[in-house]
Amino acid sequence: MHLARGSARILRAAEDLFGDQPPAAIVLTHGHFDHRSSARQLAEHWDVPVYAHRRSWEMPSYFFTAFVKERRLGVVLVAPFDIRLPERIADPVEPDVLFIRREHQPRAGDLRFDGVPDLAIEVLSPGNWRFDRNTKLPAYRDAGTPETWLVDPIARTVEVYALDPKRAEYALRERREEGETVSSAILPGLRITVAELFPSADS
Asked: For the chain, which end, N or C, has fewer CB atoms within 10 Å of the first or last residue's CB respectively?
């Protein structure tokens, strides 16, 4: 694999400090993610996961929880919380964030949910994006999850997939980036500025 100049410079610095021992993971810690393209290349070179600032996971949960709680629509849950889909599809799956309508929501104290979430959110990283796109997204589709979001804190984009019940296929409903607003068909009225889903420079 050919590394870009910035990636190669980081690789040389890492080898000077730690020899040829690869890291256990790459952690992106600052708000602008200036090295996100290098992180993607280095993650593939070292075959390690990339962890973005923890607010990349917290912010989708924050906006969904506030919207759902105010309107008493159901419950928003975050990982770790297992979902057992019908027919044990990809059993179990663990969305990063999920929404379940009030009439279907699990009881307090339940350790898992047996059924289909109304909306699932997966936060991608170079270490997991293939699994999320190629395994989990089809699993949500096959189980009948009406809407799934793929949130990419490195590219700083959001993709919203909506289920076409007639064809049992997902269609890309929206793909939004910084400077744009993303919305949900499952939660009418929910509109989130994409930039607010990701860490800011002073986070």
From this structure: N
- pLDDT tens-place string over residues 78-95: 887 788 887 777 677 888
Residue 169: CB atoms within 10 Å: 11
Concatenating the DSSP letter of every residue in 120-175 gives EEEE--TTTHHHIIIIIHHHHHHHT-SEEEEEETTTTEEEEEEEETTTTEEEEEEE
Beta bridge partners of 176: 158
Task: Tell me which residue of 85, 104, 103 sits closest to 93, measured CA to CA.
Answer: 85
DSSP state of 16: H
User: Any idea of the CA torsion for 49, 54, 58, 60, to the nearest 10 degrees?
Assistant: -50
Instruction: State the amino acid at position 154 in one-letter form.
Output: I
